[in-house]
Design goal:
Length: about 475
């Protein structure tokens, strides 16, 4: 046994970090497409006539198929049964298809005037594309998590997860900073009649940043092909030539193994606490990112072209901090405590954002940086804690269930925020309908919702710490085995 472990490919530092580098490219591209529309919200409103509710519908599409069609859960089951190579290739292919549909919808001006199922046809197809893409990016996320456990267990696992998340956040950062400059760079000039006069108008190309995403996703798809050969080598290096071949399962055995896995996972209280903490935490960060640029325009008086800059600082801090906190967890432990501190920061930041005072851009910068620290703390400890609660052969299913629960929040919260924003600002809705000058949105209520999620996350964090004490999961212990 010891001999077999010593000869495994994952014992080579270069091999495991090389594998991580390759799969990180796929996730980088996925995260870029996920948030590419955020800084474009004001443009979508002015160019295509979207409202905040429309934008909320589009954004919530991320969870439609994952949540209602249980795509994520199927993805986890497929991952545990078919393996990382098949699932990774399938999911990165789905990402490309979804992004292509979204690109087609956004770049097709003939869709602007019609409606489908009661919504703007353009929004409908863009949302369908985004929903398909989201199946891919979420299943790719769980696949990558399982791949990291496979290569790094007993080694620097939290650090590796932190590094992968850092590269993915680079994608988020690019998505917040690049789309407006890209849309402006590819803008076109056309002549319109206004007040009886012919005037030249600049129209930004909203589809250009999405075309860029499509190119990145194709590169990510190709990168996964390269990873597949490494995965095969890893498996060969760990296969015992004298071991008997595994007997294929009958259909009945397959179903009963799936149900037995599901039963064991959902009967585990630690799993539920991690999943609830996950949905509360992520719902107070990722949906916030979707509105952050708009918040900067409306609360802090920034121009549309610079508004994405401050939110892009959020992932910037996480690039360095997530691996650092992951490294601390690997060496010193204290996973539950790290998650609680992150949740406290969330509450603090969103409470200050909700106050109708301190409307200075530099306050927004400081708050965004602190939010970035929270976005480093919680994930750096949360994800490497899952393998301490769930056995490796059920990890794909467990990650997929956690992501599934999280997706309820990623889908519901942006929709809720868009709705609350329109409801709390009827004068904006009226002005848009009348075509008069649009007043600023008041973001107090949406930000209070985000703060409330942070408060609940702190509570659940303490429950998790208590459960860890009772069950001895080892969340407060280091990951590296000496
Ligand atoms: N190895 C940990 C993987 C989880 C990383 C986590 N991603 C998610 O939670 C996704 N379900 C949602 C991604 C949304 C992308 N903006 C993360 O912290 O990114």
């Amino acid at each position: 046994m010891t001999e077999a472990i010593r000869q495994s490919l994952r014992d080579s530092k270069a091999a495991r970090w090389g594998a991580l580098g390759i799969i990180s490219i796929t996730m980088f591209a996925g995260y870029y497409l996920t948030d590419v529309m955020s800084p474009l919200k004001p443009m979508l409103e002015s160019e295509f006539g979207w409202s905040s509710t429309t934008y909320g519908i589009f954004t919530s599409a991320y969870g439609w198929f994952n949540v209602f069609l249980l795509m994520l859960i199927f993805g986890g089951i497929i991952l545990d049964r078919m393996g990382a190579r098949f699932t990774g290739l399938m999911s990165s292919g789905i990402m490309v298809v979804g992004a292509a549909i979204k690109f087609w919808a956004i770049s097709n001006p003939t869709l602007i005037t019609d409606t489908t199922f009661g919504i703007h046809t353009q929004v409908f197809y863009a949302s369908i594309g985004f929903a398909i893409f989201a199946i891919g990016v979420e299943i790719a996320g769980i696949t990558v998590s399982k791949i990291i456990v496979k290569w790094f267990k007993g080694y620097e696992m939290a650090f590796a997860m932190g590094m992968q998340m850092a590269v993915a956040r680079l994608g988020t950062m690019l998505a917040l900073a690049a789309p407006v400059p890209l849309a402006m760079y590819f803008s076109s000039v056309h002549t319109v009649v206004e007040n009886g006069q012919l005037i030249e108008k600049m129209s930004p190309s909203i589809s250009a940043p999405i075309a860029f995403a499509l190119v990145l996703l194709v590169i990510g798809f190709i990168a996964f092909f390269i990873y597949m050969s490494m995965d095969k080598k890893l498996e060969l290096s760990e296969t015992d030539p004298n071991a008997e071949a595994v007997k294929p399962m009958s259909m009945n055995e397959l179903w009963s193994s799936i149900f037995s896995d599901l039963r064991q996972i959902i009967g585990n209280k630690g799993f539920w606490l991690i999943a609830i903490l996950c949905v509360l935490f992520y719902s107070s960060v990722f949906p916030f990112i979707k509105y952050a640029a708009d918040l900067m325009v409306n609360k802090y008086g920034l121009s549309q072209s610079t508004a994405g800059m401050i939110p892009s600082l959020l992932p910037l801090g996480t690039l360095f901090l997530t691996p650092i906190f992951g490294g601390i967890y690997d060496k010193k432990g204290k996973g539950a405590t790290i998650m609680i501190i992150g949740a406290v920061l969330i509450l603090l930041v969103h409470t200050i954002f909700s106050l109708p005072i301190l409307n200075y851009w530099y306050v927004a910068v400081v708050l965004t940086i602190v939010l970035g620290i929270a976005l480093s703390l919680v994930p750096s400890a949360m994800w490497p804690s899952v393998p301490k609660i769930i056995p490796e052969n059920q990890l794909g299913t467990a990650f997929s269930l956690i992501f599934w629960i999280q997706n309820w929040g990623l889908m519901g919260v942006p929709l809720l925020i868009g709705y609350v924003l329109d409801k709390s600002n009827p004068e904006v809705v009226i002005a848009k309908a009348a075509g008069t000058e649009i007043p600023l949105y008041d973001y107090t209520n949406p930000m209070m919702i985000f703060a409330g999620l942070g408060a609940l996350a702190i509570f659940v964090g303490f429950l998790l710490k208590r459960e860890d004490r009772i069950k001895g999961y080892g969340l407060q212990l280091p990951n590296i085995q000496k």
